Amino acid sequence: MTDVLRRGRASLAFSFLVQGVAFALLVTRIPAIQNRYGVSDALLPAFLAAVPVLAGVGSVTTERLVKRVPPSRLLRWSQPVVLLALLGVGAGERMVELGVALAAFGLAVGVLDASMNMLGVSLQRSYGRSIMLSFHAAYSLGGIVGASLAWVGAHWQLALWVSYLPVVLVLLPAVLVGSRWYVDDRGAASVAEDQAGEGGAVVFKWLLPLCLVMTVAYIGDSTVSNWSAKYLQDVLGSSEQMATVPFNVYMVTTLLGRAIGDFGVRRFGAVAVVRGGALVAAGGFAVVATAPGAWVGMLGFTLLGLGLCVLVPQTFAAAGRLFPGASDAAVARLNVFNYVGFLVGSPLVGALGDLWSYRGAMLVPMVLVLVTLVYARSFGAQPDRYGGGHERPRTADVGRGSNGL
């Protein structure tokens, strides 16, 4: 069984990596996509907003589908759809073709994100120790690879389909082969449901703190991805070339933080790691907001990568612990707030920047990240299902029991 779990972990990590590549190839080539299809600046936000909205629909649909279809099967067929939709974005010629490709991409991404994290939560349960951050580290690595490939395509002025086709031709058969080793740990889920003492229903009031943390984390992430370059150039006076550096630094520090984050969870527990991540991220926003120049601003974005990187993986893991008999449903519902944060973050900072100042706008996600401290206990405890409404610590909390070596 150990070999089965190891193969399952490796194949799932590869799927996270592939998704990071695909998503980065899409979002980093938005100007080229806009030029190819003649999408106006006024219409572009509608196209971009449609992707996370449809992804939310896909995530909700996944919650219903997993009652009949295992998450591994949903992941096996949604990931090829994402890759083919990406190729469709690059190969189309008319705006309606762009709309169809983005719609397919969004719906499939929702199914893919939810099913990937479902499998990650169940594998972590089987391992008996924190491994969730390693999957998201693979996603971050994929994002760096995808952004690098996008830079190559832009530098050599390659047509979008020329940039995308080799990637799809390599990754599509690879994910289909790798999907043979996905692990649906239904046995462990059944045991967890029996231990939960009830039918495993998801109680939204218990899930709500994690939903808020997920939203806040993605507000912070979208702030960096959408505004770091503009902030460094327009507010801190950097060169255009230097303004491209903060996002790359953020991605690298996110990868590093996630690569070592599981060890921190095993040593100190999820609650301490989440609190530490929130404080570091809030400090990063504070440094960015008060930075006198570009180099100090980049230090702030570095801190943001180290702080924010732990929040999302641990939120999914906490949902699995909170509802051990209904972790798939909990993950699917929680995943929707990924897209809520993505939709809210960029417009929020942009509006505040125009009405107030961009320095002041950076203080808003800082305050929101600090809200995570209020709900940090949700990452290491579960509400008492047997009355009283109090929280009791779980001895099986990842990283602090005898299995968390």
TrEMBL record:
Subcellular location: Cell membrane
Organism, as annotated: Streptomyces tibetensis
Pfam families, A to Z: MFS_1
UniProtKB keywords: Membrane, Transmembrane, Transmembrane helix
Membrane-spanning parts: 12-30, 42-62, 74-92, 98-119, 131-152, 158-183, 203-221, 241-261, 268-289, 295-319, 331-350, 356-376
Keyword Transferase: no
This protein's name: MFS transporter
Chain ranges of the Major facilitator superfamily (MFS) profile domain: 207-405
Compositionally biased intervals (Basic and acidic residues): 387-397
InterPro entries: MFS, MFS_dom, MFS_trans_sf, MFS_Transporter
Region called Disordered, residue ranges: 386-405
Coiled coil region boundaries: none
Record has Transmembrane as a keyword: yes
